[in-house]
Amino acid sequence: MGRILKERIQQEREFESLSQEALLNLFVASAHARKKIERVCRAYKLQFSHYNVLRILRGAHPGGHARCDIIERMIDPSPDVTRLIDKLVERGLVRRSPSEEDRRRTIHTITDAGIDLLDDMHPDIKDVQGWFGRRVSDDDLRHLSRICEGIYARPSAPSDA
Length: 161
Prior knowledge:
Blueprint: H1 3-9, H2 18-43, H3 48-60, E1 65-66, H4 67-73, H5 81-90, E2 94-98, E3 106-110, H6 112-135, H7 138-152
């Protein structure tokens, strides 16, 4: 194992451990798949993080989320989510309104234009998902999901953090 990875990262020596090899493979595979999704996002004048926020808000539609709740749900939280959301508001894809329970909080909701954009993107996103599915069997997809969940599941002990 590791021949394809070694060629990809142009490494000649052996990996120091199976965990190092697997972790590098995970990084390379993740970056490869993410580039394909980012290419779709760019075609719609979005960054991946914008797409992620829109999907989070569509999942809460017709309600919404406060900024802190959006950050908690993001795949890769951005350091400046406020600015990220500002751009979505400027494009008319997200709306801000004061919370009815706590006027100090702002709730963000996806607009009809935001939903329409996600609907427009859906066939292209499905194409990337199809590409991924053709490269990995259904059994391996289930196994991969289980493995990934085991990696990022909440730590059970302080030493797991």
